[in-house]
Amino acid sequence: MSEFQSLRGFHDLLGEEFKRFKYVSELVRGKLKLYNFEEIVLPVVEYLEVFRRSIGEATDIVQKEMFAFQDRKGRWLALRPEGTAGAVRAYIQNRLYALKPYTKLFYEGPMFRYERPQAGRYRQFHQIGAEVFGSIDPLVDAEIIQIVYEILSELNAKVIIEINSIGCKVCRPPYKEALSTYLRTVAGHLCEVCIDRSDRNPLRVLDCKVPTCKEAVKEAPKMVDFLCNECREHYSKLKEYLTLLSIPYRENPHLVRGLDYYTKTVFEAVSEELDVALIAGGRYDYLVEEMGGPPTPAVGFAVGVERLSLLVREGLTEDPLYMLIPFGDVMDYALLVAKALRSEGKRVELSYKRAGLKKQLELANRLGAKYAVLVGEEERAGNFYTLKDMETGHQLKIELSPAM
RNA sequence: GAGAGCGUAGCUCAGCUGGCAGAGCAGUGGACUGUGGAUCCACGGGUCGCGGGUUCGACUCCCGUCGCUCUCCCCA
Fold first, then answer.
1. In total, how many domains does chain A have?
2. Does nucleic acid strand B have an atom less than 7 angstroms from the CB of A63?
3. Which range of residues forms the domain containing residue A24?
4. What pLDDT score was predicted for residue A303?
5. Is residue A203 in a domain?
6. Is the CB of A337 under 7 A from strand B?
7. Quick check: A66 pLDDT over 80?
8. Which nucleotide minimizes the distance between its C1' and the CA of A118?
């Protein structure tokens, strides 16, 4: 055991794990570029208030999961627990609303939540998030879900996409009222936490996992039955588009999200095998305004890169490796051969191991080289190298170009 | 924040009801100084997570602590 260790929930990403991580990351990034999202790099630290205002004072994230601290001037700062808050702040601060009628952004990077680590959960983890600012059109919600679906399909992930609408400031208050009233009638069957939530945040009772709560909530009034005309229209249009695009989904009237800023569409892609959300998102039509910007509707999603990586078997396919094996006193020549091969775009490992040909071939084998490039006295004298196919064992003599 | 299990070589692990710390793989060297992907031989490597306690004696039992894994809560 080494003297120093990384912190709980903070880990080094390397080897096969890194390859799977990178594979997922590049898949998602590639997809977002196809949809013409523009990348931005956001700060990892913001004023605490940015998160408190956007995510919501009453949420678990804000109440107990943030890495918050004071800087030297006594200001309260926090490591970002998610990306949307910072993206919205950046959107407003840089006045992106003035440049185009709508804006499509994505970002990738570490997020921090002070929680107990477990399968697919870390204190520092990575998300790729995408946000569309400036359109209320359900077409946008549909495209966001389409991206999510395509990502998951390409990974062959066994996942269900669940959707719901949680209304807007017109229709949600009456619904909350109705739900609270109902919850009072079944209070005897609710867990302690839910009794507490019944008044303050009744929506959250809907996705409580305690069996008795689940049971008690089955007959509860549903948000979808309370949607105002605009929200109902939005929701049914979204479903039409999803059907048009052949995207399978399941309506889950009990789906709510842990963050306060959502309106209308919310969705989650839940892994069937792991029972965790891999990708989630939704619409947040008031957040930009609440954060001090002009009224601007928005939709977005975030993927947990480590979580998605759990489902990936393959890694990144790498270019074939050329293991350059010098034997004898031919290092000068070996350097030139390596230079020549690399200038042709080949991935070359020049063996640093001073040993006989046999040992170095063993090394080449262990490093998974596709080819061994043999360079000895004979090769140097004839200005060529010997290319050995490590699978078939066939060898060829290849002239070095005169330029070298 | 609450609960359970686990920390022994670089890795995977064995080590009995307390009694000299082990194996496989990896590494290094080598009859082979121009031919590998299971040839052979030899060698190195340990604060048994850390601290305390019990004991003649602790890898083993007890307490604490740190870390890992998992569950609950919650979430990506």
1. 2
2. no
3. 15-171+227-309
4. 95
5. no
6. no
7. yes
8. B70
- Return the amino acid letter for A181: T
CA separation for the pair A130, A108 (Å, rounded)? 9
Cα gap A180→A205, rounded to integer Å: 10
CA distance A171 to A151: 33
- Give chain A residues 280-319 with Cβ within 7 A of strand B: 280, 302-304, 306-307
Domain shared by A362 and A258, yes or no: no
Q: Could you read off the pLDDT of A126-165 as tens digits, one per residue?
A: 999 999 999 999 999 999 999 999 999 999 888 889 999 9
As a rounded value in angstroms, the CA-to-C1' distance for A132 and B62 is 60
Digit-coded pLDDT (tens) for A245-259: 999 999 998 888 877
User: Could you check: is the Cβ of residue A192 within 7 Å of any atom of nucleic acid strand B?
Assistant: no
A261, A284, A309 — which closes off a domain? A309
Question: H/E element holding A229?
Answer: helix A229-244
Q: Are residues A104 and A76 part of one domain? A: yes
Query: Of residues A259 and A362, which shows the higher confidence score?
Result: A362
User: Which amino acid is present at A322?
Assistant: Y
**Alpha carbon A364 to chain centroid, angstroms:** 35
**pLDDT of amino acid A314:** 67
Q: Write out which nucleotides of chain B lie closer than 7 A to a protein Cβ.
A: 1-3, 26-30, 32-37, 49-50, 66-76
Residue A67: what are its φ and ψ, rounded to 5°?
Answer: -85, 90
Total residues belonging to chain A: 404
